[in-house]
């Protein structure tokens, strides 16, 4: 049943292009992408139910379950639906913290997973820096690099989003010091070689990465120093002395606060430039998310990011875009920074989550360290995960899923706008218009909404202090949006 008012028709939306290197096909109207997907959620027990509680207690004996959302039966999870151990099936608009792109038990990915190529990569996992297979270049060119952001034609692969960000930081520092020495041919001094072994200058320079308040870039040591979303992430961990700038705090609806928001963004840009010029540990790079995700789904305009790019070029600082959560189609473009229409591309773009692999793209050959083993570890990524990403790209291309996400997102946003007018106290600061299904709003009863949503058959997540964030898969369609809108209204009426 649609949650829209009877008789209300949404205007047709112009089809948006998919990624530059990805072709699109016509949307398949109401036909589900998964023929065996449930027609809707089913909830037969309290959540968690008895089987889930028993299994969680058993798991707790050997594994920390304090962050547990729900134990999942992945053999019964299909498409947009996640199943637990008690027979409950929920519409999943959280998707493993935004990391499932083309549905649970996707048939095409099953074929990829059982291919001879996959079997070889799994049982002979290579140390990629030393012993890559003869197929590695082809795997990259037909997969990871097929969807590389415009102007970025090379990649360093990694294990996870935090790892991708850390090696991007390393690349920025090495690039900066290489320039200061006079170029890649300049050798290291004896003083540098000796001092770095005791963590002292000049071999271990006091350079920095500038990030933003409320940012989230991961939980490893370097990435954690740029993470500013919640104290619990950072407590007790030694941190680098790196600067943070203010991310714009926009007022909604955007069209009613255009002048105020423009002034706020300009203020933040001025702060960025001042920090780059004055911070006591010189800034090697600026790191930013297109939409601050973990920190509360905070948005800024294309003009803000264009301003950031201008500042980094003017001050000879690298510009790194963290697309770990926003990348791979979620915003209605393959990469969220495609919305910005930059004159020149970012210096590096990091990725993970929906790619099911990780790394960073770059274009400037000087971002390769001047000597081997400087950007290195045993695995340097995983060919099996790169094969999965290639399969994901094939599904996105075959089904036109970037286009689908743009159109479905517009449909869903219109329904949420109606709910926000009907229940303004529970749908505050609705945001994400024109950003595919990357939509969020604030509610003073956010945690209660998330808990009650499970009882009506929806798995949904939060971010920041009060935001409800939507992170459905790329196969999320209008009929799924109707279910979500209906169930959200049910939840609101329970509060």
TrEMBL record:
Keyword Transcription: no
Enzyme Commission designation: 2.6.1.19
Sections of the chain in a coiled coil: none
Pfam families: Aminotran_3
Top EC class for this record: transferase
Top-level division of the source organism's lineage: Eukaryota
Keyword Membrane: no
Protein name (Swiss-Prot/TrEMBL): 4-aminobutyrate aminotransferase
Source species: Aspergillus chevalieri (Eurotium chevalieri)
Lineage of the organism: Eukaryota, Fungi, Dikarya, Ascomycota, Pezizomycotina
Designated gene of the protein: UGA1_1
